[in-house]
Design brief:
The protein is mainly α. 47% of the residues lie in helices and 7% in strands. A hairpin with a 4-residue loop joins strand 1 and strand 2 (10-11). It starts with a strand and ends in a 19-residue tail after the last helix.
């Protein structure tokens, strides 16, 4: 019998629905890992963009709409 969480007395065959506090903790870990994956993907996208453009200069900001001015 292999223990997955020996301090909790859980094995691989244990029913997680009987341990709601563990379910919450696992969900938090999952969300944290997903956030880290998303952050790493953004870094990969920047690297890919720089490699495609061939330079390390920052990209120019482009406004989606023309600049609005206060009427005179």
């Amino acid at each position: 019998m292999l223990y997955y969480f020996p301090t909790l007395g859980l094995t691989y065959e244990s029913d997680l629905t009987e341990h709601p506090e563990l379910q919450v903790k696992l969900q938090q870990h999952k969300e944290n890992i997903q956030h880290q994956i998303n952050s790493l993907q953004m870094i990969i996208d920047v690297i890919d963009s720089k490699m495609t453009s061939g330079n390390m200069l920052p990209e120019a900001c482009v406004l989606a709409e023309p600049t609005k001015r206060i009427p005179r």
